[in-house]
Write a structure and sequence with these properties.
single chain; 356 residues; mainly alpha; two-stranded antiparallel sheet; two-stranded parallel ribbon; elongated
Length: 356
């Protein structure tokens, strides 16, 4: 039975259920959802809103559900709409009405705002690590090529002689700014929204400071209406992803040009290139081309969410369910691109004589 079914006299049609459901994509928030629910249940117990025994039972069962999900032993239901209702339903099936008490002093509105923010913060950590790895590779190449002379360009015309180290360090600066941009975005989103409930808080004596500390946030949000309707953190994340994509695309374009016979500055390792079925002399820089092409997806994802958010009144609106897919796709795309680009760059053979 749906949590919100109380006033309804008719069941939703199967097509409406399918259209309304987000479990097909928001299931990847399961770890953040269970982590937050465990802390919420502990807080309810500490505050005496539920008994210590109920709190302990909920916490232990949630941990079991987490293990079962990670072992592939859980089947989610479209009827339960999203990851939050699915987990709560499974909890209630296992421990009865005590499971329903997890929803005390909490709405799906502040629950999803919290889970989504925690997910993006986790992704930001991973992307920053990948950026650091790429910057280290660039520094290694620069360190080894401080006297490797090559042409510098403006308007794609030969302009002045520079070193390969100097050229590489220009890209290092781009990725350093990207890293700082993500760190700043992380700082901006490091406020905990849980406790806002649907839009105006709760009459229960909850302890938001306890939730903040246990979940590792720097502070708590200050306005409940804003807390459940804010997606600035997702927009900023998407912008950061897009700028990384632009920098990777520029670098990839450089490598594509340099690997051509007309330049002959580098040879991309065979493990990061493909050939032609009809022209066997060709070696195609497909990985670099794909990275360049995927930048368009990152731009589209940013525009997608900007368009969703541009006209929404306070507070939560169902439109905001559309925030997940662009974020998931951009996070995956940036991480995949950074990983393959770093490996490809590290394997490149620089043709020093041709550059000189």
């Amino acid at each position: 039975m749906k949590l919100w079914k109380g006033r309804f006299s008719k069941e939703a049609t199967s097509s409406a259920d399918e259209f309304n459901a987000s479990i097909g994509f928001d299931r990847r928030l399961y770890k953040q959802d269970i982590t937050a629910s465990i802390v919420h249940a502990k807080m309810l117990g500490c505050q005496g809103i539920i008994t210590a025994e109920e709190s302990s039972l909920i916490v232990n069962t949630l941990k079991e559900i987490l293990t079962d999900i990670e072992n592939g032993n859980i089947e989610f239901s479209i009827e339960n709409e999203d990851i939050h209702m699915n987990i709560e339903t499974i909890l209630t099936q296992r421990i009865g009405d005590t499971g329903k008490k997890l929803h005390t002093a909490r709405s799906r509105n502040d629950q999803v705002a919290l889970d989504f923010k925690m997910y993006i913060m986790d992704e930001t950590h991973e992307i920053c690590s990948l950026l650091k790895n790429l910057m280290e590779i660039i520094l290694d190449i620069a360190s080894s090529n401080q006297k490797t002379v090559m042409p510098g360009y403006t308007h794609l015309q030969r302009a002045q002689p520079v070193t390969l180290a100097f050229y590489m360090l220009a890209y290092f600066q781009m990725f350093k700014r990207d890293y700082k941009r993500f760190v700043n975005a992380y700082t901006n989103m490091n406020e905990m929204p849980l406790g806002s409930c649907a839009m105006s808080g709760t009459s229960y004596e909850t302890d938001r400071k306890y939730l903040q500390k246990e979940l590792g946030f720097a502070s708590i949000t200050e306005n409940a209406m804003d807390s459940v309707s804010d997606r600035d953190f997702a927009l900023e994340f998407l912008f950061c992803c897009e700028v990384v994509g632009i920098h990777l695309s520029r670098f990839a374009e450089e490598l594509i040009l340099w690997s051509s016979k007309e330049f002959g500055f580098i040879e991309i390792d065979d493990s990061f290139a493909t050939g032609s079925s009809i022209m066997p002399q060709k070696k195609n820089p497909d990985m670099a081309e794909l990275i360049r092409g995927k930048t368009g997806r990152l731009a589209g994802n940013l525009i997608n969410l900007l368009t969703v958010m541009k006209g929404l009144p306070l507070a939560y609106n169902k439109d905001m369910q559309e925030d997940k897919l662009p974020v998931f796709d951009s996070a995956d795309t940036v991480k995949d691109s950074l990983k393959i680009f770093a490996l490809m760059l590290n394997s490149i053979d620089f043709k020093i004589k041709n550059m000189e």
